[in-house]
Amino acid sequence: MTASEDLRAGFHLAQFNVGTLRYPLDDPRTADFVAALDPVNALADGAPGFVWRLVEEGQADATGMRPAGADVIINYSVWESPEALWDFVYRTVHLETMRRRREWFERHVEAHLVLWWIPAGYVPTVEEALERLDLLRSQGPSPRAFTFSSSFTAEEAAAHEAAAHEVVDEEGAAGAEPAVL
Amino acid sequence: MEDIEAVALLQDPVRRRLYEFVVGRGREVGRNEAAEAVGVGRTLAAFHLDKLVDGGLLEAGSRRLSGRSGPGAGRPAKVYRRSGVERGVSLPARDYRTVAGLLAGVAERAGLDREVQEAARREGAALAAGAPCGDLDALAKVLEERGYEPVREGGAGEAREAGQGGGGEVLRMRNCPFHAVAEGFPPLVCGMNLALLEGLVEGSEGVRVRMDPRPGSCCVVAEPSKNNED
């Protein structure tokens, strides 16, 4: 295993995206989307490289959680690599629901999907997902919050974080170590 | 190597047949297999195949063709497959990709998926007016001309095992003619492509198209429509 593969094995990719519903989930105009939820989630759970997805307690998915707004549904998952996530999102029947997104969701004026690296085994929180999305929206892509088209490697994220720590150490304010990159 | 030099490599008829053979197989091809298919000696085939690798048209790898491993398995054989690098020559110089990427980006941000799909459906129907695609064979011919590289796949058993329903054969496309733009905006461009193909088969009772994305190929398949009424 090379140093880079070794580093990569220690990290997983977190994915968080938001979508503003045009109509409520129980509206007939959203019925096809709702019908696709269970099969597509099952497909994700069995997809190569899938690690974790957010599910509301006692529910099959996270569509009832609305931390970003009453009509904004969230999708939150962790993958072994960007390639695994890409292949699931765009190279499975999931693409069929993406193709019809404008029937069910408002167009996004701001970034709606954010990616970042986390230590393998760590279960990320909704709060930090919202922070990462805010970071992407306010400062553009960085190793701490990026997109498919502006991707960063786990190595780049680690280097970025190490550099940030050095600055903190020099200022004598070390100790506030973040749990994730 | 510049694009024009890479493309010029195919002027040699043997080299061109070798290239087309490797591309047509859709998998890794060994030197012996390629030489036999084209009807030249192994050494000559190897020379030309390596020229194509130098030009970035093919990629070389190594594989134990015997399926054995460990001592006695022999040296891995050199194998070839099509390169992911795109080569294009336009005289005079044209740059439609930049235009396509810019327009796709604007359509993406404006949320114009459905408008794009509607335009693509009309375009497909207009294309079909000149070359009707009433069955799988006719559609395959049109798709071949448009660069999709259609191949027939799936006997009855294979499709059923894969959970595809139907049970009949499908036409799968090895090449996405819109690859670079589709990678940048998959839902927009793949949705446009599906609508274009829907337009092509519109009004036909013999064939239908649907999305069935797989890694490394076009996301649409075509199939005889009678297989989908069960």
UniProtKB/TrEMBL annotation, chain A:
Domain DUF3291 positions: 13-150
InterPro entries in alphabetical order: Dimeric_a/b-barrel (IPR011008), DUF3291 (IPR021708)
SUPFAM superfamilies the record matches: Dimeric alpha+beta barrel
Classification via Pfam families: DUF3291
Tree of life domain: Bacteria
Protein name: DUF3291 domain-containing protein
Organism the protein comes from: Actinomadura violacea
Lineage, highest ranks first: Bacteria, Bacillati, Actinomycetota, Actinomycetes, Streptosporangiales
UniProtKB/TrEMBL annotation, chain B:
Protein's name according to its UniProt entry: Transcriptional regulator
Taxonomic superkingdom: Bacteria
Species, as recorded: Actinomadura violacea
